[in-house]
Amino acid sequence: MNVTHLECAQCGLSHEARRLHNLCEKCGKPLLVRYDLERARKTLTKESLRGRRADLWRYRELLPVETDENLISLGEGFTPMLHAERLGERLGVRELYIKDESQNPTQSFKARGMAVAVSMAKELGALRLAVPSAGNAAGALAAYAARAGLETFIFMPRDTPRANVIECEQTGAHVTLMDGLITDCGAEVGRRKEMEGWFDVSTLKEPYRVEGKKTLGYELAEQFDWELPDVCIYPTGGGTGLIGMWKAFDEMEALGWIGKKRPRMVTVQSETCAPIVRAFQEGKRFAEEFPNAATVASGLRVPRAIGDFLILDALRESNGSAISVTDEELLAAVSEIGASEGLFVAPEGAACLPALRKLIENGEVKRDERIVLFNTGAGVKYLESFEEKNL
What we know:
Layout: E1 3-8, E2 14-15, E3 31-35, H1 37-40, E4 81-83, H2 85-91, E5 96-100, H3 110-123, E6 128-132, H4 136-148, E7 151-157, H5 162-170, E8 174-178, H6 182-196, E9 199-200, H7 209-213, H8 215-223, E10 231-235, H9 240-255, E11 264-270, H10 275-281, H11 308-317, E12 321-325, H12 327-341, H13 347-350, H14 352-361, E13 371-375
Helix pairs in contact: 3-4, 4-5, 8-9
């Protein structure tokens, strides 16, 4: 479509767009897709969105797939922005919203990134894809790769929620369960990918998952009639969604769709795995690996994120924040959100509620602001987290 090149997020080195890439050839940091925005705006306008397909591909001109034949879709994106009135009343917040990503295919926001990543892998000639995952990314990759006719190799920690494992097995993936964390799984993919002929689609180790995730930002603006909210509270593991939204805001400003105003971006992590929170509080741009990482919210159990500096940059540039909550708090929030709004949310998404309470209490968020909580997945995929021993 309108892709001009890939650009290293750290050193700025330009890379050719029309071939498979993982990290920057010079410094080993993530690559970001750049577009000819002037060309894109000739056909992509606010008015042109009326009547377009109700999924993330409505923003086709700012997604990287060249030919429609390579577009792999299960109907991902354009999820509801729900006004959480009853929950808001409990907090004294009139404009509280939940962006409900559980309504994506494979029941999580990971469907966005994998739809675009798998489409591009197919277009650029990859045949065998591999990924380390704490759960939902694996399920999404397995589903989209199956639809594309590609072979998938998935490595997950042995204590990954069983629903994720079964999901991958039933959609044709080769699944390996490992002792350790997602970082250990990633190391295994790294050791074997050249020999096995795998293309690594790990978080931010290829350029296109973030392009799918950035559509969260486009939807956020469109669903609020092109006026961004005051605060976005986002559960952060690898952080691709937050990074993607920040990228989308810049693209929309260049298109003339929004002004310079940005939401204050807030990262939420578990107290027992909070590398971004610790780095933010210590004023660092890069986050050191978090020791002995453990949390029932498996998507937050990422002890080190390769996009750490991009997350921290967005938090600081937006005058945002980073906050941690306990597993007890986030599990209790699942029930509170469910009883108030009828949503059985993932533990990661539920973490946003106790985070909001703390932000209100310490004065970082005002009750008269427009606030969006991001529910990144469906609670039904985490049944082990709600066993008596965890409650």
